[in-house]
Amino acid sequence: MSTNRYFAPCPRGLEETLVVELSRLGGTRVVAVPGGVGFSGDLAVGYRANLESRVASRVLLSLGETRYANEQDIYAFVKSIDWPSRFDVGRTLRVDVSAIRSPLRSLEFATLRVKDAVCDRFREKLGVRPSVDTVSPDVRVQLFLTADMMTVYLDLSGEPLFKRGWRTDTGEAPLRENLAAGMVALSGWQPGTPFLDPMCGSGTVAIEAAQVVLGIAPGLGRSFGFERLTGFDAALWRRLLDEAGQRVDRGRRQVSVFGSDREASSVVAARANAVRAGVDRAVQFEVADVRRRQAPAAAGILVSNPPYGVRMESRESLELFYPQLGAALKAGFAGWTAYLISPEMKLPGLLGLKASKRTVLYNGAIECRLFEFRMVAGSHR
Questions:
Q1: Which of 124, 160, 180, 184 has the smallest number of CB atoms closer than 10 Å to its CB?
Q2: Distance set, CA 369 to CA 102, 185, 338, 358 (Å)
Q3: In this predicted model, what pLDDT tens digit does every residue of 258-300 receive, in sequence order?
Q4: What is the CATH number of the domain that holds 253?
Q5: What is the tally of structural domains in the chain?
Q6: What is d(CA 245, CA 260) in angstroms, rounded to the nearest whole number?
């Protein structure tokens, strides 16, 4: 099989976590840049990254890069690519353009030129052109611009990889699944160690941990963009799916992942999500206020997204809540290590705890820190 060059964007702050993951999945020449990771590999590596990466947001196949100065350069290079060999003219198309320090005045016009170039290549070869669908396209083409270089990508993922297929709520989730998975990875937690999210909301963090326990690849329950491309290798894909399916621990009944929330409706949603994710036998959810609940074991890892800003009624209620949370962690979780993500840089002081580590992470566009607190018995009192 020929070697391809890929790029996998991810939440900022998780680049090195993704490097480790893609290397384990068979990627070579794995290089982190702000916001993602470039890597090389054959078609199987590209498929496997989509199926098994817990941290990547997408997997993009590079079709080439070159220098550019204006929109005409972009049009000419994109049109030089043999698009009819990549996907059928009956497939719908979407084009996205992103840039860092590009001199172009309008990315919207650049997007239009890319679309024109793809469609003109089809029209010249076949006499017809693909239709555009910006909402749910069959094929996504991405152009990335720097100050003087352009790279053209074919999106192999389709829907973003954080859409695992088990979440049904349509509201904007507080944490995307790949950010939750990255937090779990950064905690250093390993299956067999008790794991708790005591402010679990709809269960995202705990479910990501439970899928690790059961060996469930995050992409097992969904479809991908590469299945709609002309070069799709169905036999290879079936083999990778079979291999992933054989790694699922179907006999485990012991629970070591726990989640709780003070809102009963959140716990109902979390349990339903766990069933759809296939992990209900490995995770236990209950209604409990973090300020009063006890640890489920003598030691373990706690990972959570505590409420902040828009998730609490007012700043006053937050300033009341944080000291109570800190007191609960001191009183009930000696022997545990807690990891809390927050955009509140003064969180340790508000909790009355000393952070042993701070990792910069981005929750969407919000700059946050993942704070580590080692809850040693008798400390911080």
A1: 124
A2: 30, 15, 13, 6
A3: 999 999 999 999 999 999 999 999 999 999 999 999 999 999 9
A4: 3.40.50.150
A5: 2
A6: 29
Specify the pLDDT at position 169.
63
According to DSSP, residue 229 is labeled S
Paired tokens of 15: 């680049």
Does the residue 162 lie in any domain?
no
Asked if 270 and 306 sit in the same domain, the reply is yes
> Rounded to an integer, what distance in angstroms lies between the CA atom of residue 96 and that of residue 81?
17
Contact predicate 158/224, CB 8 Å? yes
Which residues of the chain register pLDDT less than 50? Answer: 170-172, 379-381
Provide the pLDDT for residue 381.
41
pLDDT of residue 173: 56
Q: Are residues 198 and 128 part of one domain?
A: no
Measure the CA–CA gap between 70 and 333, rounded to whole angstroms: 59
| Helix residue spans in the chain (DSSP H) | 15-24, 43-52, 71-79, 107-126, 177-186, 204-214, 234-246, 264-277, 315-332, 347-351
Q: Copy the structure tokens of residue 118.
A: 């793809």
Neighbours of 122 (CB within 10 A): 18
On whether the CB atoms of residues 70 and 41 are closer than 8 A, the answer is: no
Q: Which residue has the tokens 């003070």?
A: 262
What pLDDT sits at residue 307? 85
- Return the pLDDT at 172: 47
Digit-coded pLDDT (tens) for 50-63? 999 999 999 999 99
- The confidence score (pLDDT) of residue 376 equals 83
Is 257 found in the same domain as 128? no
Angle at 28 between CA 26 and CA 33, to 5 degrees: 115
Considering all CA atoms of the chain, what is the largest pairwise distance in Å, rounded to the nearest integer? Answer: 77
Q: At what angle do helices 71-79 and 107-126 cross, to 10 degrees?
A: 30
CA distance 303 to 258: 11
CA distances from 324 to 39, 77, 145, 250 (A): 45, 59, 48, 40
Q: Which domain holds residue 41?
A: 4-155
